[in-house]
Amino acid sequence: MYSEEKAIxxxxxxxxxxxxxxxxxxxxxxxxLEVQTMRLSTFLKELDSVDLVKMDVExxxxxxxxxxxxxxxxxxxxxxxxxxxxxxxxxxxxxSSFLKDFENNRYSYKIRGSFRNQKGRRFQNIFFHxxxxx
Length: 134
Prior knowledge:
Distance between the termini: 29 Å
Strand order of the largest sheet: 3-4-6-5
Largest sheet: 4 strands, mixed
Strand content: 25-35%
Low-confidence stretches: none
Mean pLDDT: 84
Structural class: alpha+beta
Shape: globular
Oligomer: single chain
């Protein structure tokens, strides 16, 4: 999934048995694959509602959520479970705008993350459950 339909680079480590592939070369491995993407919003447009979307899209989550907001398909989903990649390399923090997209669409959320010290690593994986109160 991505914010548009096109071929994008996907970087994988030389040790293919690891799970550290990413859409950015500074976070993934050195080997690049070209992958064809599709928009989640295109799929959601065809449905009345969806109970759950689980998103672990290796750095594309903000782009995909922006697309869901722009296409007014974000609210078709009752529950979003998202792994958010925070503080990637020198990126400016954008967590507040990510959360705002859900808050503006009447979602509440639960957060899970870790503060353990990972030598030389500034990034943090944060897990969100976005839901609407009944």
